[in-house]
Amino acid sequence: MTDSLQTLITAVQTADSSTKLIGSVRQLAATADIGAIPTLIDTLGYNNPGAAVAAVDGLVAIGEPAIPAILDQLDQHNYTARSWAIRALAGIGDPRGLVTLLGAATADFAVSVRRAAARGLGSMKWHWFPPDVLEIAQEEALEALLFAATQDDEWIVRYSAIVGLQSLAIAVRTTYPQWNQQITSQIRAIAINDECLTVRARCIMAQRHLSMISDAQPPASDGRRSFNLEDTEWQRIMVQLYERKQKERQAFPEGDPQRFRSIAADLRTR
Amino acid sequence: MTENPTDIPSDVPAGAEESEPAPLTIDQAIENLQGSDLGLRMYAAWWLGRFRVSQSDAIQALISALEDTEDRTEAGGYPLRRNAARALGKLGDRRAVSPLVQCLDCTDYYVREAAAQALGALGDSSCSPHLLNLLQQPGEPETQTDAPMPQPYDAILEALGALQATDAAPVVKRFLSHEVDRVRFSAIRAMYQLSSTVEEAHHYGEMLMQALSHPKLQLRRAAMADLGAMGYLKAAEPIAKTLAENSLKLIALQGILEHHLQTQPNHEISDEAIAVMTLMDELL
Question: Which residue of A has its CA nearest to B255?
């Protein structure tokens, strides 16, 4: 660890006012240095929103090396820190955060967490997934985003889900054109039916955006084809995704109209 | 940001509505509002507003509740009247205008505040002279111990602005130098809405934009909310950059966006609208 990094960490740990804390967390976050991870994680639990926002930015800038520490944080029983950690996961888009984001987008009680998770689901780094995990991963993301876009009570979560669906539609355009179509028709329906003018406007923006993407254009990528996760880790993600899918079936048993809600909504729009 | 009292991320709006059960039916709510249980009456008044129940018997029951004398606070307030006035402000029925004007004389500061807000929301400018009158009245601080100011100046100023009460401009202008920041902001917002020229409006818009960099978080939040309510398009980018919670920035930007869309033929999505939404996307 460099001296200057240690100086910045000490400044965070010894800050004696809220303003100083925010300022020093911001400086530490700006280094995007992996040595800053533990201190930034600690900051999420300080009950200081300004400092937490800066720490989330820092963790997002650090990216995948921060993931194990963020996932550890999720296991702690500190609700505030947990919700900030979910927002960091949403910003990084690492596959190891997917299952957490699926749950958060559809069921977290805090609006800001559902909002961030929905956005994060759309901007997952899909090109990091091996093909056998990718299909169920995108299917679950699609399910969660359609649910949030049509069922959430808060306009900002629906708005965020539309942004997520727009990204997902581009990601699956050539690989799963049927999902791309499903997203397009859902967005078309929400553009007419949502009670919130802002959500309707965002749907129209998404429609325009999607119609401008030509088939020749490859999906956005940071140039990295794959990602060095252990096979066992991919295995774990896949098991969790299948468990989730299984639970969805149980939650809406055979014959329950809710189970077919998204299918019905889709049919209506055709 | 020590001003923030919550223990959840401040980005989480303090809305109880999310988990709020809706066990009432419309008929039950109207009945409860006229019943004897004070708690149920308060809840019913709030509920009718929240769920936009605008049928005639609901309006009548809420108007009657504006004259309630049973529900009192220790400081002399009328909590049911406050809730009824707030609900009437959401229901868009102009039959409430005259009874709400009566409430401007209530001894309870918070009833006067709720009534001024509701009158601003109902959009019937016939009440403007009464609001202007209240703005110039000294108030009765001795009758109420928990009132922060002699009059709810901010609510009155905002209502006058929303009602386009141009006659009120000379009096509103005097509040531009008020000692309470929140009142000053409301006066700027009202003057923006009462401006007769584009240049004058911009002058006030810019004035409020400067408050986005105020050292106090609470005032930055207030300035964002005001700029959002004004629909001041030029403030979109500065709001996105303000040091404050994303959730509040998003609400302010929503205000700007919707205000702008409503001025467009067929709610056409203009380049400006796309620009505002692009800013919003970054804040999610």
Answer: A198
0.90 surpassed by pTM: no
Mean pLDDT over each residue of chain A, to the nearest integer: 86
Contact A117, A262 (CB under 8 A): no
| Distance in angstroms (rounded) separating the CA atoms of residues B276 and B238 | 11
Residues 170-229 of B with CB under 8 A from A: 217
Residues of A within 8 A of B10 (CB-CB) are: 49
Q: How far is CA B104 from the centre of its chain?
A: 16
Predicted pLDDT at A231: 81
d(CA B165, CA B160): 5
Q: What percent of chain B has pLDDT over 70?
A: 90
Number of Cβ within 10 Å of residue B283's Cβ equals 20
User: ipTM value of the model?
Assistant: 0.83
Is the CB of A205 less than 8 angstroms away from the CB of B269?
yes
* pLDDT attached to residue A264: 46
**Chain A: nearest CA to B118, how far in angstroms?**
22
The answer to whether A201 contacts B273, with C-beta atoms less than 8 Å apart, is yes
Locate A264 and state its tokens. Answer: 């019905």
Rounded to a whole number, what is the distance in Å from the CA of B42 to chain A's nearest CA? Answer: 24
CB contact under 8 A, A202 and B277: yes
pLDDT digits (tens, 9 = 90+) for B203-243: 999 999 999 999 888 899 999 999 999 999 999 999 999 98
Which residues of chain B does A48 touch, with a Cβ-Cβ cutoff of 8 Å?
A: 1
More confident residue, B144 or A198: A198
Q: Which residue has the tokens 């679950």?
A: A140
| Interface list for A 36-75 with B (CB within 8 A) | 47-50, 52-53
The residue in chain A having the minimum alpha-carbon distance to the alpha carbon of residue B8 is A80
Q: What is the pLDDT of residues B74-119, one digit of tens each?
A: 888 899 999 999 999 999 999 999 999 999 999 999 999 999 999 9
CA-wise closest residue to B59 among B108, B99, B116: B99
Residue in chain B lying closest to A114 (CA): B284
Per-residue confidence (pLDDT) for residue B192, from 0 to 100: 95
SS (H, E, C) chain B: CCCCCCCCCCCCCCCCHHHCCCCCCHHHHHHHHCCCCHHHHHHHHHHHHHCCCCCHHHHHHHHHHCCCCCCCCCCCCCHHHHHHHHHHHHHCCHHHHHHHHHHCCCCCHHHHHHHHHHHHHHCCHHHHHHHHHHHCCCCCHHHCCCCCCCCCHHHHHHHHHHCCCHHHHHHHHHHHHCCCHHHHHHHHHHHHHHCCCHHHHHHHHHHHHHHHHCCCHHHHHHHHHHHHHHCCHHHHHHHHHCCCCHHHHHHHHHHHHHHHHHHCHHHCCCHHHHHHHHHHHHHC
Mean pLDDT over B260-268 rounds to 86
